[in-house]
Amino acid sequence: MSLEILNETGCFGGRIGFYRHRSDVNDCDMQLSVFVPPQAASGKVPVLTFLSGLTCTEENFMVKSGAQRVAAELGLMLVSPDTSPRGEGVPDDPDGDYDMGLGAGFYLNATQAPWSRHYHMYDYVTEELQQAVFENFPGDAERHGLTGHSMGGHGALIIGLRNPAMFRSLSAFAPICTTLHSPWGQKALGLYLGDDTSTWHDYDACEVARRSGDVTRFDRILVDQGRDDPYLAEQLRPELLEAACRESGLPLDLRIHDGYDHGYYFISTFVEAQLRFHHERLRA
């Protein structure tokens, strides 16, 4: 897969770039950002993909998290794709709201018109993004971790648990833990997938976790959550994920942090710990 270079520059001895390519599954152009650490000059390096949340693009994590300094120290490649299809003819929320449509792809494959033509973010992350990264950068596909924030945390959990052979490590920041019981999820999945909630189960992290007890590749699944997050009680529901993992035997490590909310100050505070968590599992 060929990439169009939008911008590249040096960063902590490595290189950060922003790229565009044609996506067949989303029937539009897609963009992504990649930080390549200095260790890549000597060979393939482990990769951590970060899935961003509502309203975000491929830029937010790279610009706001401050992750590149630690990634350069650890020799960890960072990848962040856009959060939805975009472009002429790609439908948006009919009311112009932020929680559906552009910037809100929910990392699923839509089945309902008009969304089903473009909104196939699950296939994009598990297929085309893999090609874009591993055909163009010195990343090691056998050492690939996955994380994300909010809607992207939901995406990381469902994609990571459903594809344990693809990812060796898994974490999330303040994820939407249940789309079945979250107003954000109920709205988006209702429009993308229709009213039959049985079709939502593959895109509900609790339901996926509940049937993933035989996923043994992950020795620990790390979730960081701020106690002062305004979305905690209504939208995120980590207690339901904790119960589902306890039921299935998945090794969830849910860390609640006093005094932190939902934003990038929270992410930038704990991103080093998460990068070190992934590096520990990806370095060998």
Could you give a quick summary of the protein structure above?
This protein has helices spanning 60-64, 68-74, 121-134, 151-162, 183-193, 205-210, 232-236, 238-248, 264-282, and strands at 4-11, 14-23, 28-36, 45-51, 77-81, 139-148, 169-173, 221-226, 252-257.
Report on this model:
This protein has helices at residues 60-64, 68-74, 121-134, 151-162, 183-193, 205-210, 232-236, 238-248, 264-282; strands spanning 4-11, 14-23, 28-36, 45-51, 77-81, 139-148, 169-173, 221-226, 252-257. The protein contains 9 helices and 9 strands. Strand 1 (4-11) and strand 2 form a beta hairpin. With 284 residues, the chain is an alpha/beta fold. The protein starts with a strand and ends with a helix. The chain has one domain (4-282): Alpha/Beta hydrolase fold, catalytic domain (Rossmann fold, 3-Layer(aba) Sandwich).
